[in-house]
Amino acid sequence: MDDRVILRVGAKVLIPFILLFALYVQFHGDYGPGGGFQAGVIFAAGFVLYALIYGLGNVRRVLPPRAVYICSALGVLLYAGVGYVTMALGGQFLDYDVLAHDPEHGQHYGILLVELGVLITVFGVMVSVFYAVAGRRRLDT
Amino acid sequence: MSALGLFNYWAAIFLMMVGFYTLIARGNLIKKIIGLNIFQTSVFILYITMGKITGGTAPIFVEGGRDVVYSNPIPHVLILTAIVVGVATSAVGLSLVIRIKEAYGTIEEDEIEDESL
Amino acid sequence: MSHHLPVLLVVVPLVAAPVIALLNRPRISWAVAVAVTLWVLYAALALLSQTMVDGAIHYALGGWVAPYGIEYVVDPVNAWVIVIVALIGALVTPYARMSVEREISEDRIPLFYAAFILCLTGLLGIAVTGDVFNVFVFLEISSLSAYALIALGKDRRALTASFQYLIMGSVGATFIVIGIGLMYVMTGTLNMADLANRLPEVASTRTIPVAFTFLTVGITLKLALFPLHLWLPNAYTYAPSAVTAFLASTATKVAVYLLLRFFFTIFGVTFSFDVMQLDRILMPLALVAILTMSLVAIYQENVKRLLAYSSIAQIGYIVLGISLASVLGLTAGILHLFNHALMKGALFMSMGCVMYRVGSVRLERMGGLGRAMPWTMAAFVVGGLSLIGAPLTVGFISKWYLVQAALEQGMWPVAGVVLLGSLLALMYVWKVIEVAYFREVDPELGITEAPLSLLAPTWVLALSNVYFGIDASRTVGIATRAAELLLGVLS
């Protein structure tokens, strides 16, 4: 892969923007189109691109499989955690109104936190699937 | 409504049949998954078609636009969920295919049956 | 706290699944899974007793009231199904520890429990939700984890069985989505109660019967009614024993619940049975299922496969009761949901014990087990008697009501088929008993009784087969109440 200069340089330029764009989609998702699903997939796509160009070994050093595994579980916990907090504050499950004094702000924080959970899980699952499939030995040989 | 006016529904049904046929008639497990994906996609189109309102714009709130006609966003939301479910199904299906290939050395249904005997 | 129970029922196991995956130690994962399933059982029983007294419990997620938001509703019908799922879950998880250690490699055990609890979450979610699209989401949560669980089986045929189930299950689920979409386009709502109100206005259009048809095919695929049962035998045969015991007693039951919910609550009995004449389809299929699948079961050499075919026949009984569309018939069907879960749970669990000691459940390897593993095989006999419908077991109670319901409508041949089905059940159960008790045990194998942690849950189920067979007043009471509710006799 060492000779593919255009790919290597191009990827280096692109990857930060891909990750940044993922965060834009995530944090813009409360009032505009976007949200955790899309953001998580875009975020994962950045790492997949890195793996395609620089090899699986390198990306595994940046992002150990164990960390990805923890990510995919952590997101669900964050999501459900928000639900538990709203219940503890006296609302229904996932009733964001109680998260802040002003219900509108509560809805705002609630949806961002929940979508962050979605992002983490989707990112974790996407990269796990990639690791699991790409890490297999070649079958035909 | 004329037959042409129902174009989206024709497309959905056509894709549905293509997917369903592939699913049933092909013996290759990967092709079966592809068939399943096409089949599911046809349903996505069906839903999105339902949500469209003639003259309606994307359901994003426009500042000061009280009279704007919006398309129904609910089907989109539902389909977003269904797409995620579809991706998960494909992932599970494909990983099963990999394991089947490792266990049997083939992903052709008839050859797997010969192996099993 | 207690008014949050409907949602906690789903969310507690949902949170437990990633926690189990994170802990990543077989024993600790198991302990968490047991704690969660026991809590779920407690919550399920609390909900059942609450709804029997106070009527339907409503819970609006996120504070968005129905029909705008997703609503969880618990009434006697789904509380009953929730209790079935929770009870089997709470018995299978303690049972799973030793069974799984023998059948699944150690590094996968935490993931096994995570998938298991996720499957439980999905099944409980289907039962508790009052939103039709939410049904689909939970259906896929339970199905996807079920595919993974089945694929964990030791035999490589578990993989193909799982794949076959995945293809057919996904087609079924997609059919359900099409049905839901067509209902939505006509009514603009996804809430079950709201749908029930709005559907009669548009029932005469062509779309609603089409939606009805798609839903019928999709749900009957999921519940493995006769011609759509092809995924079931292999899946049950090659899955790990604990998974088979769990899925056989819960997954198809929840699908039957969906059938009840869609046809009785949403479409209404008049539309389903007078306009669409559902009984003309369901009844023949149920009768054919009872006869042919019992016959096929007789010829099986693998006992798990034998029991799987018998499951399809038993589903026939449940659907037969439903297709009669009378209070008695529905009572029989709903009663058999519970009773069949008890008997199949006991039978598959005793087969898990055999698997643990012998390493196979093929008949030729089971000679003389009645002496080598007396408690295991005695549990099998109790479950088998219940399957046949011998008096003093739960099987007798459900068949008694089923025959009564058939005779009430003057359907003598149907009652005859039910009795004939019992006779066939006697034949396949006897086949196993003959091998186990009337053949010499091979002393060289040194087979001993299964360990207590496997036997105890098996016997809890076996004894409840007898207990609820002798004192059926409570179960019949709940089933009758649920049947009346579904038929709208009691509002």
Describe this structure in words.
- The complex is a heterotrimer of chains A (141), B (117) and C (491).
- Chain A is an all-alpha fold.
- Chain A has helices at residues 5-27, 36-54, 56-62, 65-88, 103-134.
- Chain A contains five helices and no strands.
- Helix content of chain B is 69%, strand content 0%.
- Chain B has helices spanning 7-25, 29-51, 74-104, 109-116.
- Chain C has a two-stranded antiparallel ribbon.
- Chain C has helices spanning 5-23, 26-54, 76-103, 109-128, 132-151, 157-187, 192-202, 207-223, 232-238, 241-266, 269-275, 279-298, 303-323, 327-358, 369-372, 374-388, 394-408, 412-438, 452-470, 473-487; strands spanning 57-60, 71-74.
- In chain C, α5 packs antiparallel against α10 (241-266).
- Chain C is globular.
- The chains are: A mainly alpha (141), B mainly alpha (117), C mainly alpha (491).
List the helices and strands and how they pair.
The complex is a heterotrimer of chains A (141), B (117) and C (491).
Chain A lengths: L4 H23 L8 H19 L1 H7 L2 H24 L14 H32 L7
Helix pairs in contact in A: 1-2, 2-3, 2-5, 4-5
Chain B lengths: L6 H19 L3 H23 L22 H31 L4 H8 L1
Chain C lengths: L4 H19 L2 H29 L2 E4 L10 E4 L1 H28 L5 H20 L3 H20 L5 H31 L4 H11 L4 H17 L8 H7 L2 H26 L2 H7 L3 H20 L4 H21 L3 H32 L10 H4 L1 H15 L5 H15 L3 H27 L13 H19 L2 H15 L4
Antiparallel strand pairs in C: 1-2
Quickly describe the structure.
By secondary structure, chain A is an all-alpha fold.
Task: Tag the structure with descriptive keywords.
heterotrimer; B: mainly alpha; Helix Hairpins; 0% strand; C: 491 residues; mainly alpha; 2 strands; globular
